Amino acid sequence: MINADSLRISLPAILEPVLGDPVTIEDVQTVSGGARRGIWSLLARTPGARRRLILRSGHPDELHAGMELEARAQWAAGAAGAVVPHVLIADGSPDALSEPYLICDQIAGETIARKILRGLDDEARAGLLRQCAQALAAIHRADTTGIGAPHRDQLVTWRAQLDDLGTTTATFEWALRWLVANRPEPAPARLVHGDFRMGNLIVDGGRLAAVLDWELVHIGDFHDDLAWFCIRAWRYGAPSRFGAGGLGGIQAFLQGYEDAAGVRVDRDTMRWWLVMSTLRWGIICCQQAQRHLSGQSRSIELAAIGRRVCETEWDLLELLDDRRIA
Question: Using an 8 Å Cβ cutoff, are 212 and 200 in contact?
Fold first, then answer.
């Protein structure tokens, strides 16, 4: 099991070949915010330098990528111009630390979405929104050769996830039937971050400093990332006119993406993906509630997320009834 003492003992041997000097590990602290991954902040001291690092650990599963895949995806996205943490090393084996791990540079800034949004005026919101659109455009033009990310059909994936829960709602089933009946032609396959949203971005002084949490990375349709950023859950209470991440209008976000990517985003296709993404969040809310109710992980937070299922049903009904995109 990873803890502060084990990291102080084990990490020097891992980091010395990378940093090229004897390493001492200091100031090891756990970091909150990882739902499925262990996250540690630490200081690596060498004779000539001090370097703040982040260590993430955890095993892959059906949906969540392994550490080496996360690293390859970040390297590819960074090479395409996306702002990502510099990954020093990643290992999918549990041999060294008892769990697979990834170590990257620590990036200064804020990740708590409500704090970020409270600190921005309208001009700063618009500027950050453009940077988010540009970051996604860079991710989507990354060279996927050799990354090894799975091709994922989100409709098939989340139909199966809902079936595995053994429960459903009339609204979810109606949404699934609508998605099957109105499915657009697939876009060319691209690298998809899979969880691009406020909360997985580091913002420093109103500037997008890094895109984090690549554990849902896959090959798929670029509309997936665009729509996920725009569901109501990631607005954090901002008015509907700030439908894109709580920062600005969805149309402004799509225009920024089109300018950066050199493609046109079909609005009907975007609506389909907004329905798909909202349904996905609703199923995740059900999964989180079941973790609490089953006793697997007793948590007030998980129980509260479960209560948000009805919110996603309301959002789905509105999306299915209205062809406009705010």
Answer: yes
Q: Is 268 exposed, middle or buried (0-12, 13-18, 19+ CB in 10 A)?
A: exposed
pLDDT of residue 292: 65
pLDDT at residue 21, rounded to an integer: 87
Q: Is residue 326 in a domain?
A: no
Distance CA 217, CA 104 (A): 17
Q: Which domain holds residue 98?
A: 4-105
Whether 139 is in a domain gets the answer yes
CB 65 within 8 A of CB 216: yes
Q: What is the CATH classification number for the domain harbouring 122?
A: 3.90.1200.10
| Pairwise CA distance, residues 165 & 71, whole Å | 31
How many domains would you assign to the chain?
A: 2
Beta carbons within 8 Å of 295's beta carbon, 6+ residues apart: none
User: Is residue 118 located within the same domain as residue 101?
Assistant: no
CA distance 153 to 122: 36
CA angle 46, 214, 287 (to 5 degrees): 130
Confidence at residue 237, expressed as pLDDT on a 0 to 100 scale: 87
Full-model pTM: 0.94
Overall size of the chain counted in residues? 326
- Contact between 232 and 146 under an 8 Å Cβ cutoff? The reply is no
Q: How far apart are the first and last CA of the chain?
A: 47
Confidence of residue 32 (pLDDT cuts 50, 70, 90): confident
Burial of 147 (0-12, 13-18, 19+ CB in 10 A): buried
Mean pLDDT for the stretch of residues 192-209 = 97
Q: Rounded to the nearest 5 degrees, what angle is found at the Cα of 219, between the Cα atoms of 215 and 224?
A: 80
Categorize the per-residue pLDDT at 203 as very low, low, confident or very high, splitting at 50, 70 and 90.
very high
Task: Please indicate, yes or no, whether residues 51 and 197 belong to a single structural domain of this protein.
Answer: no
The verdict on 171 and 306 lying in the same domain is yes
pLDDT of residue 76: 98
